[in-house]
Amino acid sequence: MAGYRRNFITDYDGLAGQWWDPRGALAPLGWIARARAAFVPVAVPGPGPGPATGDGNEQPRLLDVACGGGLFGPHLAGKGYRVFGVDLSAMALREARQHGYDAVLRADITRLPFTDASFDVVTAGQCLEHVPEPFVVVSELCRVLRPGGTLIVDTIPDTGTARLVAITLAENLPLPGRPPRGTHDHRLFVNRERLVRVARAHGVELRLLGLRPHLRDLARYLVRRREEVRMIPTKSTDVLYLGVGTKR
Fold first, then answer.
1. How many Cβ atoms from other residues are within 10 Å of residue 90's Cβ?
2. 144-179: pLDDT as tens digits
3. DSSP secondary structure letters along 10-49
4. Sheet holding 145-155, edge to edge
5. How many Cβ atoms from other residues are within 10 Å of residue 89's Cβ?
6. How far apart, in Å, are the Cα atoms of 216 and each of 40, 135, 206, 220?
7. Residue 26 and residue 218: Cα distance in Å, rounded?
């Protein structure tokens, strides 16, 4: 699907030096990563053998799909997981390895190189809206998640409001944290109802909630009085949303 190539995940290679810049183009990804981490349960080692924990003595495992430069990693400290990251970008993976990831692997997220039911938690943040087959990715996320494990995804919905905010405004206003023009393609934004249906078909009942910036944080960020913006839950899923569920 050549028409989507400009928006593909490896395009982040051109921003490799900005992963940890609090005022750079990737800064909002860090804000969302922090919010996502709040939904990761504290690990509880299993009492016996299982596909995710081997002989029952291994540390519970978390897979971060499309992990990028590892912005999620620091927020997992103390959760008790062995953290794995996969991404197409070798440059991003080098960054992730230095920020709390125990193992990283370059891989196509539509064909994850892991056996079924091999992770206790699977997360995928801000990647489904960058691939032409997002629901294939969702099926893979569910496949590698063990029964009883937690799935967490966040993405952008296919709404006119999301197109206005994420593209028309976010990519054009001269503000800190602005993504480059062309970062998003509205044709790839992810239908909420279909996401729920696909996850359900693979054993995961997702609960959806919206995320938005804390307005006071955002105002202080824009005038350079704050370096990070908290993302808070909201009822509206029209601009940015997160899904969390447990596999049957």
1. 12
2. 999 999 999 999 999 999 999 999 999 999 999 999
3. GGGGGGGGGTT-TTSTTHHHHHHHHHHHTTSPPP---SS-
4. 103-106, 82-87, 61-65, 119-125, 145-155, 241-246, 207-213, 231-234
5. 21
6. 26, 35, 30, 6
7. 15
Cβ distance 105 to 142 under 8 Å?
Answer: no
Residue 70 · residue 103 · CB < 8 Å: no
Give alpha helix (H) positions in the chain: 27-37, 90-97, 134-144, 160-163, 192-201, 215-222
DSSP for residue 4 = G
Outline where DSSP puts E strands in 32-172: 61-65, 82-87, 103-106, 119-125, 145-155
Contacts of 74 (CB under 8 A, 6+ apart): 99, 100
* pLDDT over 70 percentage in the chain: 90
Phi/psi for 164 (5° steps) reads -65, -50
Name the one residue in this structure whose structure tokens are 């940015």. 240
Return the residue matching tokens 């967490």. Answer: 152
Residue count of the chain, please give it.
248
Q: What is the pTM of this model?
A: 0.92
Token digits of residue 90? 């070798």
pLDDT tens digits, residue range 200-235?
Answer: 999 999 999 999 999 999 999 999 999 999 999 999
Distance of CA 25 to the CA centre of its chain: 16
> For residues 238 and 162, is the Cβ–Cβ distance under 8 A?
yes
* Residue at token pair 């934004």: 189
